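New to this. Comment on this protein:
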Amino acid sequence: MTEPAVPTPFRLAYVPGVTPSKWVRIWGERHPDIRLELVVTTAADAPTLLRDGLADAGLVRLPIDRGGLSVIALYEETPVVVVPKDHVVTAADEVSTADLEGEIVLHPLDDALAWEALPGTPAAQRPATTADAIELVAAGIGVLVLPQSLARLHHRKDLTYRTVTDAPESPVALAWPQDATTDLVEEFVGIVRGRSVNSSRGRDAQEPAPKRTASQKAAAKQAARAKAGKVPTPRNAKGGKRGRR
């Protein structure tokens, strides 16, 4: 006996710090028969991974090279500065880039923020990764400005962070190959945009409503007349015409 074919999984790439768990849960509720595979990638590699067909869609950080990709912006992340817990900036709930003057501000090669001009004093050498920069902050060598989700991802007990009010925000977007906009991609786009399962673009909503039987139509018509107060009074009822004796 031939075994039933297993549906092709939907592959979703995502970059560090982005948390797709809410959308993955909704996907599982709506499409339990189609497995969703998560593909971890770096912010720099995400566009190439999508163009090479190694994922059906991806949660990426902007800006990216949009060549061959469809992109919709989702939200923007708040920038924060990561510092040792005894650092002077922890006295305030939030700081500005001007408050970082005189500080060594680390600028890793995988920096997720699009700076026009980096605040503070640059380090003699750029760390290779955000994780390396966090280690340098813990060693007291400098401070690091990055999206809040990355600060949480690299949390350490000896470090903390504060919002930086005028640093660049980090936009997060959903991207997918322009020439591979499948029904499953459309389904996931609907999920991240908050469309309900009964949305006009949902698969279930495209099925026509079943036709009513004649008796159902008559019952509905009678109910509508009763609601409108138009139910006819029986001829032999009190106040109506009397029949012949």
